[in-house]
């Protein structure tokens, strides 16, 4: 299975297991937007249920899924979801070969979005904010 992050600027193929995202030259996907941290986030494929988990590394300017902020948390993302790294960064759609691209709604418990500084866990999107 091949998966990509697709934006207006181009398309990045994801690694088979874990893809790191950030400004650091050692990241798998290097983004130069001002709001992107050196080690911003990672996107991991979970073969047990063919899903993807997005982990924010407590970035200063946040990681967003379908417009909802993920802060120092891991969230399950699906093909069609829109990801953004940093407050003013480009948007990327998660695209998986052979998968139906259905964008899920977001789950924004509280006003701040998913998670909070110092809190870790896996939160799953549900319909409606």
From TrEMBL:
<protein>
    <submittedName>
        <fullName>FHAD1 protein</fullName>
    </submittedName>
</protein>
<feature type="domain" description="FHA">
    <location>
        <begin position="19"/>
        <end position="70"/>
    </location>
</feature>
<dbReference type="InterPro" id="IPR000253">
    <property type="entry name" value="FHA_dom"/>
</dbReference>
<dbReference type="InterPro" id="IPR008984">
    <property type="entry name" value="SMAD_FHA_dom_sf"/>
</dbReference>
<dbReference type="InterPro" id="IPR052642">
    <property type="entry name" value="CC-FHA_domain"/>
</dbReference>
<dbReference type="Pfam" id="PF00498">
    <property type="entry name" value="FHA"/>
</dbReference>
